[in-house]
Amino acid sequence: MPRQVLEDTLTADSIGADTALAASGDPSAFERLYRSHVARIHTLVRRMLDADETDDVTQEVFIRAWQKLSTFRGESAFGTWLHRLAVNVVLARRKSVGVERGRFITEDEPLDGATGRRETPELSLDFEEALARLPEGARQVFVLHDVEGYRHDEIARMLGVVPGTSKSQLHHARMALRRHLDR
Amino acid sequence: MNDLWTNRLSEYIDGDLDNEERVALEAHLAACGSCYATLAELRQVVARAQSLKDSSPPTDLWPDIRARLTPGRRPGVERARRFSFSVPQLLAASIVLALLSAGGMWIGLRSTKPTVTANQNVTSPPPDYTLAYASRWRTSTDAAVTELEEALTRNQGQLDTATVRVLRQNLAVIDRAIAQAQRALKRDPGSNYLNLHLANTMRQKIELLRRANALAAGQS
C-alpha cells in the first residue's frame, strides 16, 4: 500500500512540522494539532474523570501543552507526549479536588453496586456507561491498563499505590464490566 | 461463583503469574467450569477495552482554548526571544523537518523513472558551510526549488488527490518555516545558525519535491 504509506508518512510529517511551528508561537499550527488530537484526549479525560469535568480538563490539557511545547524534544511522537501530559493533568486534578474516598473497589464490596445489575436487557448499561460508574480509582486503573496500555508498575507510580493494588483493582474492574459485554 | 483462583484470572490473562502458579491454575481451569467461563468473559472485556473508539467533544472547545492562549507567543519564552522563534525551537524544527527525508526515503528507493534531475550539488549545504557563500548556495537552491515545483505541477496528475493535498499541506508548512527563518535573518543576518537552518529547511523542501516527483513518475 505505497500510497497509504506515503499519506501516513506525510501526515506524521505534517504533525511534526505543525509541532515545530506551534512551538515557535503559531496558534494556527496549534489549532491544527488540537483538531487532530482532541478526540483522543477528550475521550481519555471522559473515561478517567466525571463527565461534567471533561470539557474543562480537556481545555486545560491543551493550554498546558501550549505552555510546555518548548519542553517537547521530539523524542516521542507529539501524540504520545500530549497523551502523557493529559494523564498527568487528570491525575493532578484528582489530587487537587481531594478525591480520595471511594476510589477503589474493596474486596467485599458487591461489584454489582458499582455498575448496576443486569437483571433485564432494558436495564443493562452500555459498556462505556458501566465503565463510567466504576469507582474512580478502579476506573483509572482499567483505562490506563486495558485501554491505554500502561503497565502496572507505571500505573502504580502514577496513582501512588503499589503494583499489587493496581492488579487487584484491574481484576475487580474487569469482573464488574464483564456483565456489560452484551451491548 | 468465586474460589481462590478466580481472583488470579486477570493475572493469568496478563501473563503475570509465575510458571508454577500458571500450571496450577491451568489444572484448575480444566476441572472448574465456572472459572473457565469467567476467564472467557474477562478476555472479552480486555478485547472490548482495546476496541473502544474515541469520540470528539459534542461542542467545539477550541474558541475557549484559543482565548486563553497568549496572543502570538507562548508564556515563558517571550522575553528571551530575539527572533521570531528561539534557537531551541529552531532545533526542534530542524529535527522535525529532517523526518521528511527519512520518512520519504522509500519513495526514492522504489523510483525507477525520475523525470526531474535538479542540480545534485544543491541538495546539502557544504560541510564547512560559512556565511561567505551562504547567499551563493541559496541562489542555486532557489533555482532547483523552482525547477522541481514546476515539475511537480506537471506530474501531480499522476498522484491521487488525497496525496497531492497532503503534499501541498506539507510544502505550505515548509514554506512558512522558510519565511520565518528569512524574517529572523533580516533581524540577524550574521547568524551562522540561522543561515544553516534556512539552508537545511530549503534542502528538506527539495528532498520532498524530488520524492514527490519520483513517486509521480513511478505511477505513470
The DSSP helix count of chain A reads 9
Helix content of chain B: 55-70%
- Largest β sheet strand count, sense and barrel closure of chain A: none
Per the principal axes of the C-alpha atoms, what is the gross shape of chain B?
A: elongated
Strand content of chain A: under 5%
CATH class of the largest domain in chain A: Mainly Alpha
- CATH architecture level-2 label of the largest domain in chain A: Orthogonal Bundle
Q: In angstroms, what is the radius of gyration of chain A?
A: 19 Å
Proportion of helical residues of chain A: 55-70%
> Into how many domains do the coordinates of chain A divide?
2
Distance between the termini of chain B: 66 Å
What is CATH's topology name of the largest domain in chain A? Rna Polymerase Sigma Factor, Chain: A
pLDDT < 50 runs, ≥5 residues of chain A: 110-124
* Biggest β-sheet description of chain B: none
Name the helix and strand elements of chain A from N-terminus to C-terminus, one letter apiece: HHHHHHHHH
Total number of beta strands of chain A: 0
Q: How many helix segments of chain B?
A: 9
Beta-strand content bin of chain B: under 5%
What does this structure look like?
The complex is a heterodimer of chains A (183) and B (220). Chain A is mainly alpha-helical and 183 residues long. Chain A has 2 domains: 2-96, RNA polymerase sigma factor, region 2, helix turn helix motif (Rna Polymerase Sigma Factor, Chain: A); 111-180, Orthogonal Bundle (Arc Repressor Mutant, subunit A), CATH 1.10.10. In chain A, 68% of the residues lie in helices and 0% in strands. Chain A contains 9 helices and no strands. Chain A has helices at residues 2-23, 27-48, 54-68, 78-96, 111-115, 127-132, 136-147, 152-159, 163-177. In chain A, helix 1 crosses helix 2 (27-48), helix 2 (27-48) crosses helix 3 and helix 3 packs across helix 4. Chain A is globular and about 45 Å long. With 220 residues, chain B is mostly helical. Chain B folds into 2 domains: 6-51, no CATH class; 83-219, no CATH class. Chain B has helices at 9-13, 19-31, 33-51, 62-68, 87-103, 105-110, 134-155, 161-187, 192-219. The model of chain B is unreliable at 75-96 and 98-130 (pLDDT under 50). Chains A and B meet through helix 1, helix 2, helix 3, helix 7 and helix 9 of A and helix 1, helix 3, helix 4, helix 5 and helix 6 of B.
